[in-house]
Write a structure and sequence with these properties.
about 425 residues, 16 helices
Length: about 425
């Protein structure tokens, strides 16, 4: 009985978002689905590299998957504001499941081609353009503002737990049965999140139409709102740099494994799991400190540490060093992402929140096509080591410029955002 009480108190103190029934349904569904997603991620990267042998072509696949987010996420924010988010998520998760099954069938029947993978990546990107800001804005509807940062940290914990488990299972599946089974199991895993969504009962926030302004005017208003707020502007700019240059692991790690370490699928899965272990630890850390709220100084420190880790990773030549540095990179990447995400959502006014999060999706994930092409191109010409170093140096320099420009914000907003 005492053990049960202690466990209940631990959850209430550190994982309070789980006390919300609706959030539990969503979280448990994601626990299953995200493992499948990571199995597909490593399976697709290895499949493309095996088919083409080109890091640059692997970068093109990643670019295709995130290009729609770059082009259309601002429009998605308007849509998210005007329709119930649960219904949108039911549609987007169903579409993602169908795309996973399609890729599985192509691979298992030996019909897959590089061009088919490009098309499916582009379609998944279009789907994610709507899915990402919807999921971000849905959190506050099911947990409230007080538990929002805890929910975001728990989402990161789930995501990175899956990043540990998914690549490990995926590497074994690829070695024994082939990449097709990674895609098939990913398709099946979506049933869990769809089941959870069906059982969520929440009063949706739908922004009432207050004027006859067109979509472009609403997008402009959202961007101007961000630009005029120093905290939002600095956070968005830092997220742009990190999202572009520091999240290209799906391109760089398989190339590093194959061309620098001269090893195979198992090592690739292990290195991805190391990244996940660090990210998981970072997410847990943010969950434990979520009651303190987000701090702009934390985003600043984490962004600079990530830059240093990328450079050091480029200079490493052993599996052990690379694994340790990837774990450290994952730790600070997730601290940065969770803190920045929470800052934006909690600081933004309700009528602007979906538009602010659509901009977040744009700069965090939508910038990936640029980063993927850059990382793939540099890896093609100078190797994966050179790409890691180049991304790290650029990340550090650009972050320092942004920090200097908004240096007064870090002082004035160091105690915020709730």
């Amino acid at each position: 009985m005492n053990m049960k009480l202690a466990g209940s108190q631990f959850i209430d103190r550190h994982f309070h978002a789980l006390t919300h029934r609706n959030y539990r349904y969503l979280w448990l569904g994601q626990c299953v689905s995200l493992i499948g997603t990571w199995m597909q991620n490593i399976g697709q990267s290895w499949l493309v590299l095996t088919l083409t042998g080109s890091p640059f072509k692997l970068g093109i696949v990643a670019a295709c998957q995130f290009l729609p987010i770059l082009l259309f996420s601002l429009f998605a924010g308007i849509v998210v504001d005007k329709f119930p988010k649960k219904k949108i998520l039911l549609v987007t998760q169903t579409v993602a499941m169908i795309l996973a099954f399609t890729l599985a069938i192509l691979v298992l029947t030996d019909s897959v081609k590089y061009s088919y993978i490009l098309v499916l990546a582009l379609l998944l990107g279009l789907n994610n353009t709507l899915d990402m800001p919807t999921r971000q804005a849905f959190n506050i509807e099911i947990v409230g503002k007080e538990d929002l940062m805890n929910a975001i940290a728990l989402n990161s914990t789930t995501f990175n737990m899956a990043r540990i488990v998914g690549p490990s299972i995926g590497a074994v599946m690829m070695a024994l049965l082939g990449a097709g089974w990674c895609f098939l199991l990913n398709g099946v895993s979506f049933l869990a999140v769809l089941y959870g969504l069906f059982h969520i009962q929440a009063a949706p926030y739908v922004r009432k139409k207050t004027s006859n302004d067109g979509i472009m005017k609403e997008i402009k208003d959202g961007i101007v709102y961000i630009a005029r707020d120093p905290l939002l502007a600095q956070t968005v700019l830092l997220v742009t740099v990190i999202g572009t240059l520091a999240f290209n692991f799906n391109v760089l790690i398989p190339v590093f494994t194959k061309n620098v370490l001269h090893l195979g699928e198992t090592t690739y899965g292990t290195l991805m799991s190391c990244l996940g272990i660090g990210s998981f630890a970072g997410a847990l850390t943010m969950s434990f400190r979520s009651k303190q709220g987000p701090r702009i100084k934390l985003s600043i420190i984490a962004s600079l540490v990530v830059a240093v880790c990328l450079v050091l990773n480029g200079l490493s030549t052993s599996v052990w060093a690379c694994g340790a540095l990837l774990a450290l990179t994952g730790f600070f990447n997730i601290m940065f992402a969770t803190n920045s995400n929470s800052s934006l959502q909690m600081h933004a006014k309700e009528e602007y929140r979906a538009r602010v999060m659509s901009v977040y999706s744009l700069v965090f994930a939508g910038s990936t096509p640029i980063g993927s092409l850059f990382a793939g191109y540099v890896a093609d010409r100078y190797g994966a080591n050179g790409a890691f170093v180049g991304c790290g140096v650029l990340t550090g320099v650009l972050c320092l410029i942004i920090i200097w420009k908004y240096r007064k914000t870090a002082v004035k907003k160091s105690i915020e955002v709730i």
